[in-house]
Amino acid sequence: MKKNMGSADRILRILVAVAIIAVYFTTTWLSGTLAIILLVLSGIFILTSFISFCPLYLPFGISTCSEKTITD
Prior knowledge:
Number of strands: 0
Radius of gyration: 15 Å
Order of helices and strands: HH
Largest sheet: none
Shape: elongated
Number of helices: 2
Distance between the termini: 27 Å
Strand content: under 5%
């Protein structure tokens, strides 16, 4: 599995996931089906951030990972 997420993308996903989780536990805005969907999405964001791989980027050929060029 080749990494396709850069550090900025990973940090942004973690921040969004933490924000969703914080809103869920500190307010009553999120409840029911919407809460479940957003909490699952938060879990996916955190998981993909830790492994630096997003399967949805593959079909579109997206990579936010910086390419390092080796010069001789």
